[in-house]
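Continued from yesterday's entry.
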Amino acid sequence: MTCLECSPLDSIMARYGSQLAAIGPKAPIVFRDALNREGRKGRKEIRQALVRQTGLRLAVIRRAIDPRTRSASVSSLQYRMDGVGGEISLRYFSPRETRSGVKHRSPNVPSPVPHAFTKGGSFRTGRKAVRPPVTTGHVWIRKDPSKFPLHKEKSGVWIPKEMVRGESLDRYRAIAFRLDGTVGKQIARFLPH
């Protein structure tokens, strides 16, 4: 599990210290609202970055991130995005069976995967889904010449690892940078005019 915390609050405290002192007990509300505002916008940006970075569909990224996202509260001033899950199966990278192997969109595995398959039967008589039905859509390969066992091919993509590198990490840093201005706007709501 990887956690991205949007909480560069020390530099913000130094910059807005006197204004925060003026609003007193409402200061935690300012931080909570700013963190949640930027966190919600940032979560969308990070999900889109992960789609481009991994080749996965948005629905798969959402299943790995959204259930573990926690908004900031007055008692816990951090917006958390936890990515969960192991190595993603090639099934989620639009696999397409060809005579030379299975083509896919995973950036970490060469395409096509030679000797891999998603269906059974002869190319002459028509290919059918591998049975039992729960295996449908997965990419399979035989590790030795015997008929069984079959091994499910993986993609080399782990969403928690992808969250802390590349474009998604750049998006996180941009969110942290924008947080300073958002705190300033939230403070202005509570200062007397």
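--- second protein ---
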Amino acid sequence: MVNSPTLRRRRLSRRMRELREASGLTAKQVAADAKRRSGKPRGWSDSKVIRLEKGEWKRLRTDDVHILLDIYGVTDTAEREACAALALESNQQGWWASFDDVLGSGQFVGLEAEALRIRTYESAAIPGLLQTEDYARAMIRSGGLVEDDTLQRRVEVRMLRQQILTRRDAPTYWAIIDEAALRRVTAELADQLEHLLDVGSRANVGIQVLPFSCGPHTAMTGQFVIMDFPPPDPPAVYLEAMTEELYLEKPPQIQRYQHIYDYVQAMALSVDESRDYIRHLITSHT
């Protein structure tokens, strides 16, 4: 399995937050103590501690990690070594780092790379991991004015992401696609429908169609992705708006989206019925 620096960063940040909260210290108190211990008054601030706990840092020195562990009273050698190792692994770069010009932080791709299971609901578009190159190009171009080189870079990285579905240790991937997204596939892009049948035949991939006949439902307002990771990392929910990304990690939030997904999945056509429906759409185009 790919070791994702993004997941390591998330794990270390979560552990640092847990240790501080267990110690009863505020971020300001931690920063003041870190200044004293490090001998670098300008090297620490409460905002630095908060950024570290949110995973909003670029590189983290193992010396800084050890200072925090000293403040939190962590003496267990194994835990100290594990946290230091996480810091080193978090500073590495995944393949997606070379596409930071079109991906930004690449956080979603980094999490996706090490997920054990990915469940997605899409209300208006074919999920990125299931898109053909032509469909991806049409989707990206439709978002507005895009230079040719930027367009090609975005298409390229989207195709590279799809390699996780064919790895030896590929995650289980389950997609529920609203009928509206399929109806928007034009005759010129009909290969996209054929591709859904092809990729949906893989043992680790499931595709279900949510038909209009289901009527109003709880997920109508937008798409979301639920990612499950190897222990000890908890699941995460990814939400995408027009210009921003949101990650939900609190247990009540995760549970709510898991319930929504289960509800929508129960309403959707079965896998076999969905394949028949897609074949029907292909026939209508020809």
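The chain has a mean pLDDT of 93. The chain has two domains: 5-92, 96-285. Will compare against the first tomorrow.
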